[in-house]
Design brief:
The protein has helices at about 20-30, 45-55, 80-85, 105-110, 130-140, 155-160, 220-225, 235-250, 255-270; strands at about 5-15, 35-40, 60-65, 75-80, 90-95, 95-100, 120-125, 145-150, 165-170, 180-185, 210, 230-235. The chain is of the alpha/beta class. It folds into two domains: about 5-100 and about 240-270, 3-Layer(aba) Sandwich (Rossmann fold); about 105-235, NAD(P)-binding Rossmann-like Domain (Rossmann fold). The strands form two sheets. Strands 2-1-3-5-6-4 form a six-stranded mixed sheet, with helices on both faces. The protein has a six-stranded parallel sheet with strand order 9-8-7-10-11-12, with helices on both faces. It is globular and about 55 Å long.
Length: about 270
């Protein structure tokens, strides 16, 4: 009997050592007996990496920091979400044509709706990178009033202008108020787990604190918010839901979300 050829999937980014995408997707492939492998590649040359994806016939790719925006010019086509957001976190290789998608916005909104309806809420978003673009897009389309804070003023103002929302300087993060604050920056991500973008004394001005970092599952920001008695949302659910949408795009099959969640949580527990 002819053996089914193993499909190749990967993550590209810099850094990638913290990522649990391999753990999550390998568990999903195994659960449904999908003949595939998934590897994380530390990339310094994006153009070279894209050539490698083409020449190796890699079926699907997860894209992470810092390439979600930069990857777009290298793709053959992009879907409407990517066109509107200006960032891609997923590539599907369709018979040699690399097509970009964004599953971050769906993943974020699916996770957020478990704890809060953003419509009419005043939301402060920290950061203006690829993940921030997807989250701002999701929030604005759901009727939230968004203010973006970013260290690089020009980049933050540009994003705010694109999505018709407000901008405030990074220094205002200690005084600005809102219903919800969302950290999309890598501040507090493993291994720098002792860092937080907002100090404890400034969190009481919000009802809900969201950190899209999932490694660690409880960042210092989330821990401080817990201690202050605030509602919180970690990045784990967003990570799993965006990964589930990637899985669906790559395979055309229903993702085993519970398996993916269990694999991620076990890996985070082992590294705690």
């Amino acid at each position: 009997m002819k053996k089914t050829q193993e499909k190749l999937f990967c993550l590209i980014g810099n850094p990638v050592s913290h990522s649990l995408s391999p753990v999550m997707h390998r568990a999903a492939f195994e659960a449904i007996h999908f003949h595939a492998c998934y590897h994380a590649f530390l990339v310094s040359d994006l153009a070279g990496a894209i050539k490698g994806i083409r020449s190796l016939g890699i079926s699907g790719v997860s894209v992470t920091i810092p390439f979600k925006e930069a990857v777009i010019p290298y793709l053959d086509n992009i879907d409407e979400n990517v066109r509107r957001i200006g960032a891609a976190n997923t590539i599907l290789n369709q018979e040699g044509q690399l097509v970009g998608f964004n599953t971050d916005s769906q993943g974020f909104m699916r996770a957020l709706r478990r704890v809060e309806n953003p419509k009419g809420k005043k939301v402060i978003v920290l950061g203006a990178g690829g993940a921030a673009r997807a989250i701002v897009y999701a929030l604005v389309t759901q009727g939230a009033q968004v203010t973006i804070l970013n260290r690089t003023r020009e980049k933050g103002e540009k994003l705010a202008q694109e999505f018709s929302c407000s901008f405030a300087s990074w220094e205002q993060k200690d005084t600005i108020e809102g219903d919800m604050i969302v950290n999309t920056t890598p501040v507090g991500m493993y291994p720098h787990t002792d860092e937080t973008p907002v100090d404890a004394s400034h969190l009481s001005r919000f009802n809900l604190v969201v950190d899209i970092i999932y490694h660690p599952v409880e960042t210092k920001l989330i821990r401080l918010a817990h201690h202050a008695g605030l509602k919180t949302l970690s990045g784990v659910d967003m990570f799993i839901y965006q990964g589930a949408e990637q899985f669906r795009l790559w395979t055309g099959l229903e993702p085993p979300i519970e398996v993916m969640h269990q694999a991620v949580m076990e890996a985070l527990k082992d590294e705690a």
